[in-house]
Amino acid sequence: MQHHMRLTEHPFNRLKEGMKEIEFRIYDEKRKKIEVGDTIKFSLLPSLQESVIVQVVALYQYPTFEELLTFLGYQGDALDEKMHLIYSFYSKQQEDENGVLGIKMKIIPKNES
């Protein structure tokens, strides 16, 4: 199954350059449909004209972003910075109501998609 998500410029470019391996999202109804092996088409905001397709290789579901990030090895200042960035997109209430998801992915080269 292919899913569709949107990213702002910085994370989109990091993904495209192979520097972003995990996408952090709220574990809402849309994300509950994602399974390992699925593909996700990430489109660049705001125009949505450019996209990257990835394959989901692992899913990490946790109650909070802090628990997920700690599991992934974030600590100290790196953990604080990542938490601050995530909370600029999501509220604590969204996290409390849904839990969170880490989506580990690999880019599918254009000639394979």
Keywords, separated by commas or semicolons:
113 residues; alpha+beta; 5-stranded mixed sheet; 5 strands; globular
Summarize the structure.
The protein is built from 4 helices and 5 strands, in the order E-H-E-E-E-H-H-H-E. By secondary structure, the protein is an alpha+beta fold.
Describe it for me?
The mean pLDDT is 95. Helix 2 (65-71) crosses helix 3. The chain is built from 4 helices and 5 strands. It has a 5-stranded mixed beta sheet with strand order 1-3-4-5-2. With 113 residues, the protein is an alpha+beta fold. Strand 3 (39-44) and strand 4 (51-62) form a beta hairpin.
Which helices and strands, and how do they pair?
Blueprint: E1 2-7, H1 9-16, E2 22-26, E3 39-44, E4 51-62, H2 65-71, H3 76-86, H4 92-98, E5 100-107
Parallel strand pairs: 1-3
Antiparallel strand pairs: 2-5, 3-4, 4-5
Helix pairs in contact: 2-3
Number of helices: 4
**Mean pLDDT, all residues:** 95
Element-level helix/strand string: EHEEEHHHE
- What's the β-strand tally? 5
Q: Based on Cα principal axes, name the global outline.
A: globular
Largest sheet: number of strands, sense, barrel closure: 5 strands, mixed
- Bin the strand percentage: 25-35%
Strand order of the largest sheet: 1-3-4-5-2
Terminal Cα span: 13 Å
Q: Classify the helix fraction into a percent range.
A: 25-40%
Which residues sit in consecutive blocks of at least 5 with pLDDT less than 50? none
The radius of gyration over CA amounts to 14 Å
Protein structure class: alpha+beta
